[in-house]
Amino acid sequence: MALLDDPAFIIAHIRHSFITSDDTGMCEMAIMNEELDWPQKKKEMEEKRKSNKAQFDSFDNDQGYDDVEIYGESYEIESSFDYSFRHRSNTAVRLDKLRHDRMTQTQCQRIKWKEEASDFPEEELEDLFGKKEVKEKPKILKSSLSIQLERFPDQATNIFAEYANFDGKGHAGGGGVKRIEIFLTMVEPTIPDRRFLKVVVTNNAKVQDLIGLICWHYVNKGLQPELKENLESYCLMISEEDGEVDTDFPALDSREAISKFGFNTLALVEKDAPEDDGKPGSKDNIIVTIKSSDGESRLAVDSTQITLRQILTKALRKRKGIIPTAGPHYLLEKKSAPGVPLDLDLKLCETESMDFIMVREHSRRDYLKSDRTRPYSGDREPPLVLSTQYRSFRVSMLHKLRPATEIQLGISGDKIEIDPVAQPRNTPAKFWGKQKAVSIESDRLAFCNITDDKPSGKSTFRLTFKSPNHEFKHYDFETGTNLTKQIVNRINHILELRASSVRNDYTLWRERRHSRKAHDK
């Protein structure tokens, strides 16, 4: 290195030597002066070579350093992305391998196996360490179907299996089904838990299909006594919540759709079996006759120790839509002594009578008037029983921003249902949104009145109710004048029977609104 007299090579070599290890930059300070004088020295060296004055210069004829630049890159330094890794030499790798092999050999030990001579005879060894034959158990593979068949032996075929298609328990979301509680009159009274059967039936089923579905559940539960194979031997009748069959009404028509009826409780009755209809020939029950403005009804009681209040409650339950604890109050009078109200806490045996008259408190008994025998018309007030029975009407529902849509208005003592009907394709209402089904409970009804009588023979009426948000809303309908009066009278009669607090709240709200408008004027 000291024999080299090429300044360019020496400066470049110094820079390349310290470029990878000197972070302080001192090497640049050491060769700063040489770099400043290098252009002038380079020119002098070129002139010296041209004049050939340095004949004994060993580097004059060596052209390998002519192209050396002091800022050129080193051929020994290679650029790489792996700045922190340094390749190991072959010697270091070989030494590590020898060290690893030496450590592995120290962990292993070679043992020479030698069989020692045994002092035991072969017979004793066979007795002590004899080989045993292991018998493999045969594997028996059974399918899930075979296991189910073995678990459940042969069962009797349900002859009513075809009606299982009308079971609505498997319907997702619970839409399009109807839940009805069925009272089984043929089951022994000693088993009260099995006398009621909750059935979920599809809306497209008829009454006959519902009877078949009830019989299908009856057979699956293994109830006794056995049913007859002919479904025509049974019928569905209206019953109370406690299972008492209401014999004042006929059985449901087996050809009608079950969605037409709004009853939540029905009774399965055998036609050929003797029914407890309250006739004098009954042995187990005592028959009490109650006469009212709506007609005459007979009640079957178990004992004469029952109070008149309990008899009155049973009589009111026969009138669909009347709640004994709310609404108008009723009294009982003896048929032989009209006009004298009886104490409801008296027992039946203390009255010495089986015939009574049910009258409304603070009202006249008009059941003897001759107008009751006149035929019923739409403009007259409907009887109590008729107004609370379910009946449907085909009317048009009015909207503010779209044409009227035809709907089916179902009225019963429990609720009012608004069901959409299929619209023809050529009607303008077909292009609007589909009318949703609405159900309004009778306790939320507030008011119903006729709003307009048109010369065309049609009238509009408004149904006001209280929404779940505690706001009064209304629906407007249009139909014939006579039918409008009949619907309004029926709904108003239900409102009188209910006498709910919603109607009183609506009356106060309407009076307050009228007074506010009058004050603003």
Automatic annotation (TrEMBL):
A Pfam short name: RBD_SIN1
- Ranges for domain SIN1-type PH come to 389-496
One term of GO molecular function: phosphatidylinositol-4,5-bisphosphate binding
What region holds the Target of rapamycin complex 2 subunit MAPKAP1-like Ras-binding domain?
296-360
> Which top-level group of life is the source organism from?
Eukaryota
Which cellular component terms (GO) are annotated to the entry? cytoplasm; early endosome membrane; endoplasmic reticulum membrane; Golgi membrane; late endosome membrane; lysosomal membrane; mitochondrial outer membrane; nucleus
Indicate the segments forming the Sin1 N-terminal domain, all copies: 18-134
Q: What is this protein called?
A: Target of rapamycin complex 2 subunit MAPKAP1
- Organism from which the protein derives: Strongylocentrotus purpuratus (Purple sea urchin)
